[in-house]
Amino acid sequence: MQTIVATDGASKGNRVGARCGWACYFPNDESRSVSGMIESGSNNVGELFAIQKALELTQDEETTIYVDSMYAMKCSDGTWTPKWKSAGWKTAKGTPVKNIEIIQEIDNLMQNRTAPVKFIHVYGHQTDDSFPSRINRKADEMASIACGGNEVNEGNKMTEKDTKDSLEKRKMQLLKELGEIEMKLSNM
Prior knowledge:
This protein is an alpha/beta fold. The chain has helices at residues 43-57, 70-76, 81-86, 100-111, 131-147, 160-186; strands spanning 3-12, 19-25, 34-38, 63-67, 117-121. A hairpin with an 8-residue loop joins strand 2 and strand 3 (34-38).
């Protein structure tokens, strides 16, 4: 059976030094879904780290990874890495490749995979009910929660306890929604 993963990254501030979140959502086995926070990184770092985790978790499984970042996908699927490697990890303009550590780790994971992987680009933030849009929204929610992105309240300062309570409540809501999706998928 083929493994399906939706990956996403989110950043609070989306700049170097901002905290970012990442997520891997497994719609056919949500117990495998994971997310986390990186203390300092851009949205692209979160996107790339999510792909790295997905590859690590599915190394021996035939896998389809849904990605909403064209940049992260092209850094991972072999579109850009061969040229960058042959140019000493420099871009076509001769500048150093950004996020090189994560990209090199992804490239290593891709080179050493024991099962095929396919990347599919999906447009982010879509509201339609298609399978790719639904799983992308779940990965986006997970990544946003991981970096605290759903807790931005203009003018309202939240205590650490308020934030933790709110995140736990949202986590429980997402788990319920994930269960509903799993039931729908099992009936397909």
